[in-house]
Amino acid sequence: MPAVRAPETSWRESATGYLFLAPWLIGFFGLTLGPALVSLYLSFTDYDLLSNPRWVGAANYVRIATSDPKFSAAMHVTFLYVALSVPLKLAFALLVAMMLNRGLRGLPLYRAIFYLPSLIGASVAVSVLWRQLFASDGLPNQALKLVGIHGPSWISNPDTALYTLVALAVWQFGSPMIIFLAGLRQIPKDVYEAAEIDGASRSQQFWRITLPLLTPVLFFNVVVQTIDAFKAFTPAFIISGGTGGPIDATLFYTLYLYQEAFAYFRMGYASALAWVLVVIIAAFTALSFLSSRYWVHYDG
Fold this sequence. Notes:
By secondary structure, the protein is mainly α. It is about 70% helix and about 0% strand. It has a two-stranded antiparallel ribbon with strand order 1-2.
């Protein structure tokens, strides 16, 4: 018969495991779950950081839904940004991944170079550089002057300001590109060889072989990049000077939330805005998983 461990020995082994888990548990309950629950409570209060929270029930959520034009403006800008930046970034990432998948020499070097913008793209320094790049005397306008065109100040024009942020997002294509490249490497080459024997063109191979077999990777990238796009903050804050201008053209949802919390000290209302964003992201993610059964193809 197997030996039965003494309760004291079992307790010591469990205690050792929990001791190693303690840093994560402290971080989870103290820095994630705890603040989230406090934020949920504050979303039902009127709180300005200086006085005690005053319970107002669902008043903050009612205001969001009925009488806050800034909320509508921020939602419009954010959804437009997501709808433009995510498809363009993924399309560009897939294009570069397919080029790198052709067996280029020095592939690790190219992969590192293309991945670098994803590491530094959301930094303050890059956002400041981007603001200078698309100013009235920036590099694009200097190039346009060579052909006799006087370009606008892209970041000061409400018709073009958002598109500079979209361009910055697309420039950070390195992360999904690496994932696409890994997915392309998993597609068997004999499938393409059989298609060539059958007379399939390059475009037919892409639409009938590459894209269907790449749908699991595409699904992952769509979900991750969309969530990141909803949470975008630093570029809009730096380029607009924290105002979301011009004329709320770059008023991202996260930037509006920041203004309510740290410019107007309406912490209760900002907490309600944060939970609305959580619900929006959760709803998108749930819909993505529900729809994936119709277009994502897994082996077997």
